[in-house]
Amino acid sequence: MGQGTSALTDIQSELAEKFTSNESLGPNDPFWNRLLSSFNKTPQTREKQESVVSALSVFNENLLVNNFYTGNVGALMYVFLERSLELKDCVHLQDHLFTWQSYNALFVLRCVLSQWVDRLDESQLQAEFQSVPNLHAGKILYPPDILESFINRLIELLVDLPVSEVTYHLYLEIMNVLLVLCSHQMFTRCWKGEDSSIFRILFSERCRIHAGVLVKRLLANFVHRIPVPHTWFGQSEGGSVVLGLTSSLWNVLTFNRNTPIVEESPLAELSLLVLLVLSYQSEEENPYRSAMVTFSDSEDESEISPVHTSASFKMSYSNLLLALCEHLEDERVSLVLYTLLHEHDRFRQFILVQENIESLVLPHLKVLYGVPSCGSRHVYMILINLLILSESDDFRILLCTAILKSSLSLSINRLISII
Asked: Strand pairing partners for 297?
């Protein structure tokens, strides 16, 4: 145990031990301020971050035994919910300390949840979240379903919080926690969204009303690709706390170890992953997928806004297409492009009338040329994209008449034998 906790300071270890002990800590206990102020340095690498998460997981066995009686995890969620009500004002006032403490609350919760999602079933998970000891009953007005309130608040923050130097890492951690919660589906084999309590919350009316704005925000994060700021909540020490994490999550979700991903913008990578996880749930009426395949072109004045409330937003088709083509070596990007080509009629028509068709085709060819360095699913997506495009006579004519403006250093004799 000593070796496992070496990534933590003595104060952090002491606080973690108290948090996971049989002592019940109410939401108003001064302990929470100490805990949320104890993580004051950024793990500069993925390895360092994993060592911190691993060190905290050492205490998880005690937490699994004691939390049902202490309700400390629910209390921490309540503390975050109360603080998050003031987050927008604090961001506006450049209150770095408050934002940083909110991030720490989410980080601790993620460390706990990452241990719980693969060990507890639906009923056990709900029981742990809803545990409120008699000591606090009546004194604190807990939400009827604290997990539902917590997930709703995460979605609201993704929609309402602006991405800035102060909120960048907080924004990343919100998406990290959402992805960890969604991963519970893999361990419980609830392949349908309606069979998972977490996805039932994400598809409830309270979350549905944000679907269009959330999808627009996630796509905009991908297009703009804002890099990691050089400051840490206003302090000089920077670095990405999620360095390598998005690729790890994607590898887990796809059971793939070979996806080449360059994380120049963790915000863009995580946004794309959250978008895919939400939009690819097998709901009959998936508001996130509906928003993803019905939005209008902001540069086309004649374009009428979609009738669907969840999809009433506009975005530049040309900017999105450019971003997709520039990062097609990422398997997730090829999946997003496939979804748009397959289901978004107006976006597909927009692509088919583009004169510089080589800017779309050449990235596909480069991925195929890179076989076998990319995964088989990636190759499949690329081939399907080309097949969908080739169904159009206009596309075939454009392709045959296109003149390359620069030389392409690919060998025409290269055989792709594994396809």
From this structure: 315
Q: What is the DSSP string of 65-91?
A: HHHHHH-HHHHHHHHHHHHHTTHHHHH
* CA torsion through residues 273, 274, 277, 283, sign: negative
CB 287 within 8 A of CB 203: yes
Secondary structure (DSSP) of 115-142: HHTTT--HHHHHHHHH---TTTBTTB--
Model confidence over 264-316: pLDDT tens digits?
789 999 999 999 999 988 767 899 999 999 999 988 877 555 544 444 689 99
Q: Could you give the maximum distance between any two Cα atoms of the chain, in Å?
A: 76
pTM, two decimal places: 0.84
* Most confident residue range from 176-190, 243-257, 318-332: 318-332
| Amino acid identity for residue 404 in this structure | L
Q: In angstroms, rounded to a whole number, what is the distance separating the alpha carbons of residues 230 and 272?
A: 23
Q: What tens digit of pLDDT does each residue of 235-265 get? A: 555 444 444 444 554 454 454 544 444 457 8
Dihedral of alpha carbons 263, 266, 271, 273, sign: positive
Q: Which residues of 335-357 are buried (b: 16+ CB within 10 A; e: fewer)?
A: bbbbbbbeebebbbebbbeeeeb
DSSP, collapsed to helix, strand or coil, labels residue 380 as: helix
Residue 370: count of CB within 10 angstroms of its CB: 16
Question: Percentages helix, strand, coil for the chain, rounded to the nearest 5?
Answer: 60, 0, 35
Structure tokens that stand for 254 in this block = 């796809």
Question: Sign of the C-alpha dihedral, residues 372, 374, 378, 382?
Answer: negative
Distance of CA 217 to the CA centre of its chain: 12
- Give the residues across from 296 on adjacent strands: 314
Distance CA 248, CA 46 (A): 10
In whole angstroms, how far apart are CA 64 and each of 2, 59, 414? Answer: 20, 9, 55
Residue in this structure with the two tokens 């971003």, named with its chain if needed = 323
Token readout for 372 is: 């076998």
d(CA 181, CA 128): 14
∠ CA 129-130-135, nearest 5°, is 115
Assign 233 to helix, strand or coil: coil
